[in-house]
Amino acid sequence: MLGSDTASHIRHENDPDYTTLLREIQLARNIQRKLLNGERPPLRSGEISGISIPARMIGGDYFDFYPLDNGKIRFIIGDVMGKGIPAAMLMILTRGAFRSAAGSAGSPGETLTAMNNAMYKDLRILNSFVTVCCADWDPRTGQFVYANGGHNSPILVRSQNRTMELPNPKGVMLGGLSGQVYIENEIYLQQDDLIFFYTDGVIEAQNRAKQMYKIDRLVPLLKEHADKQVSEIESIVVEELDHYTEGLPQRDDITIVMLKMGRRLKIGRRMLECRIKRNEDV
Amino acid sequence: MTLKVETTIKESVFTIILKGLIDYSTVDEFNSFQVPENVSRIIVSFKEVDFIDSTGIGSVLTLIHFASDHDIQVEFVDLDDSTRELFETIGVFKVMEALLKEGR
């Protein structure tokens, strides 16, 4: 058995078409890594992070940050249906739609509407879809507005160690229905509050007993380490998933985006406190 | 793990029973059946589905759009809590509601 596998491998390595294909996949992987690991917007206060670990050489998960002229940061996390090269191609389509919409749309909901309008026909032809969560964060005031297109809700860890899954505005995935309007939710973050965005690969990671990691394990982990810097929390979650899956091959792309609120500006604090109070039920 | 797809037709009702794993590796099996002509209703049973991933949901979505194009009603039955929650999060039920109730 081993002999036949080895022979097959050698035959492939000597095949020029195979070598070309492998090289092209490697180049595609480099393109994806560079696009995902682009420049992070500079922050005067607070922290942001993002990581994507594909299950195969390239993946279909996507995250991006887009600094707006008004000082806010618009960002997105997405999961394209499927895996590997086909998903990666659609991920690039999603990135183009986001980059194009983010500069002109007035809000996260409008961004998703514009993306869905741009991508709907293509996604239907390809029998595919993309789940996305888009948010605007103002690091100066803590204002956080988000809209959801079929994606998991982000997890909020309040600095007082209170965790919760943010209410899901439950919009339809991109490519599901044409002409969608995406509802937005708004909250105000306090100093050291953490927001954790993730894709399915995190909570569906399986151990040898085929048990999924699930959100029930993720939330206490975040609660325990929420006081650390986002880069540290990122490493802790990735290591925890690696430990949980006991060295088994990764089944799905894993993507994590985090933001942590720093000190708010003192200007307009009174007005801000009133708005926070109004959103206290979130 | 594999996916087994069993289909039956009784009068104008086409029933699809899914058994096993619906993911990237097995979804071709799900996409392989043909909906017979003169069907007015499709029932899909998820009772014996162990897990469904986004690729599987893509096939479910394609079935909904097919049914909408051919004026066929679709019903999903025997969904467990996690599958139902997944369908709700992604928006499968909203797509069904918008496409399959219009004009009926």
Automatic annotation (TrEMBL), chain A:
SUPFAM superfamilies: PP2C-like (SSF81606). Keywords: Hydrolase. Residues 43-261 form the PPM-type phosphatase domain. The keyword Hydrolase applies. Transmembrane segments: none annotated. Pfam families: SpoIIE. InterPro entries: Bact_Sigma-Reg, PPM-type-like_dom_sf, PPM-type_phosphatase-like_dom. The keyword Ribosomal protein does not apply. Gene3D superfamilies: PPM-type phosphatase domain. PANTHER family: STAGE II SPORULATION PROTEIN E, STAGE II SPORULATION PROTEIN E-RELATED. This is PPM-type phosphatase domain-containing protein.
From TrEMBL, chain B:
PROSITE patterns: STAS. Residues 3-104 form the STAS domain. InterPro entries: STAS_dom (IPR002645), STAS_dom_sf (IPR036513). This is STAS domain-containing protein. It comes from Paenibacillus physcomitrellae. The lineage of its organism: Bacteria, Bacillati, Bacillota, Bacilli, Bacillales.
